[in-house]
Amino acid sequence: MLAPGQALFRLGDPTAGVHEILRGQMQMVRVDASGREVVLYAAVAGEIFTEAALFSPIYHCDAITRTGATVRLYPKDKLLAEFRRNPQAAEAFMAILARQIMSLRTRIEQRNIRSAGDRARHFLALNTGTDGRTVLLRGNLKDLAAELGLTHEALYRALAGLAAKGEIKRFKNKIVLRDKAQLM
Amino acid sequence: MLAPGQALFRLGDPTAGVHEILRGQMQMVRVDASGREVVLYAAVAGEIFTEAALFSPIYHCDAITRTGATVRLYPKDKLLAEFRRNPQAAEAFMAILARQIMSLRTRIEQRNIRSAGDRARHFLALNTGTDGRTVLLRGNLKDLAAELGLTHEALYRALAGLAAKGEIKRFKNKIVLRDKAQLM
DNA sequence: CGGCGTTTTGAGAGAGCTCAACATCGGTGG
DNA sequence: CCACCGATGTTGAGCTCTCTCAAAACGCCG
Questions:
Q1: Nearest-CA residue relative to C1' of C19
Q2: What is the pLDDT of residues A97-146, one digit of tens each?
């Protein structure tokens, strides 16, 4: 349980283990030679971070929460001991890491797309449900815009544009893509 | 050894194992409901990919090389067997995955920065050598621009701007940051 | 010297960001 | 039941910054 502005750990601190964010956000921050802050990563609720702490004696950045946050710690020694005793647990953890890599790569590819319309399309295409055409929206559009790295205005306009061209249909909390057969 | 345009595997193929790129580039591609290609990730020489293949029976995307590529396969069953037998090997692989996650996160944060100058600064701040001020440039600036997701023109201008403001000094194959004491 | 790729600089256009105003929706309290 | 209020959603106008296309200077190698 951390108050806004509080640090979970600082650069150089001995590593404790893997953390999971239950509520709020954490920023991994490094300070460069000229004293400027460089944000390495901003983690949100539901994510685990400091995986690399398992393999390093000290932290290589600061972890600060601006929003306040609740964090759960999985102690390093217990995890490693469990992995040694139980190869299945080790495999499961590897699977978690591998999935994170995939999702991060997809996100990078997404950020490579400059056009707001194309970026929205990219997101929609990768987040369709089982029917391959329906995307359920989890939160509000402002949050989605942040996730896509767009201003909410740009996202509204992009979606309006896609809808105008008939590529999508918008509903309360879902978006349906027009597929090849144009069934929708 | 793959020819340009050749596919290493296709969506739905049974997974073989983890691949390392020795030469060239591979693109992970998925095709969306409307038949459009969506690039999940572009991997370059030196990287490993399909880590997640260890934990899935089939591939969830196509792997295609446009440039042609040489790829080494680490067979899935051998890797998993080795991990079960040898917890140290498992730990080492986890460490590789964890490091990749860190580097991907840093890259995402980099791509969140819109200003070319800020993005260059971010890169420089995170790539200083032991003295905390000197960045050795591995390749040419065009390649660096591509790595940063900028056009080479934009990067040239950004560096020129930083140099004009005295934040950096440019040399043949290195860039030196001005630190707080302005020693340079 | 000639050719090729990298580095640099210039001009113009497009697209997203910023600031701003307004609409819509849901919840709250009178 | 309705008025109010805040947050979300939407649209408008202008600006800035990068991208694109273009051209020139520079460096390297045959």
A1: A153
A2: 999 888 888 888 888 899 999 999 999 998 988 888 899 988 889 889 98
Please state the φ and ψ torsions of residue B70, each to the nearest 5 degrees: -115, 130
Q: Which domains does chain B have, with CATH numbers?
A: 7-111 (2.60.120.10), 116-183 (1.10.10.10)
In the beta sheet, which residues pair with residue A43? A26
CA distance A40 to A42: 7
Q: How many CB pairs below 8 A link A and B?
A: 160
Q: Which residue of A has its CA nearest to B180?
A: A34
- Mean pLDDT calculated for residue range B95-115: 89
Quick check: A95 pLDDT over 60?
Answer: yes
Report the distance separating Cα A123 and Cα A141, nearest Å. Answer: 13
CB contact under 8 A, B32 and A128: yes
Site from B15, B28, B32 to mutate, A interface, most A CB atoms within 10 angstroms = B32
What is the secondary structure of A19-71 as a DSSP string?
A: EEEEEEEEEEEEE-TTS-EEEEEEEETT-EE-GGGGG-SB-SSEEE-SS-EEE
Residue A183 — very low, low, confident or very high, per pLDDT cuts 50/70/90? very low
Q: Could you count the other beta carbons within 10 Å of the beta carbon of residue A115?
A: 11
| pLDDT attached to residue B67 | 76
User: Once rounded to an integer, what is the mean pLDDT over residues B66-94?
Assistant: 91
Of the candidates B38, B39, B90, the beta carbon closest to that of A90 is on B90
- Would the Cβ of B140 be found within 7 angstroms of any atom in strand D? no
Residue A168 phi/psi, 5° resolution?
A: -135, 160
Per-residue confidence (pLDDT) for residue A41, from 0 to 100: 82
What distance in Å separates the CA atoms of residue B27 and residue B2, rounded to the nearest whole number?
13
The alpha-carbon gap from A34 to the nearest alpha carbon of chain B, in Å, equals 5
Cross-chain residue pair A55–B91, CB shorter than 8 Å: yes
CA distance A85 to A16: 20
Listed ranges A98-107, B114-123, B130-139; the one with the highest mean pLDDT: B114-123
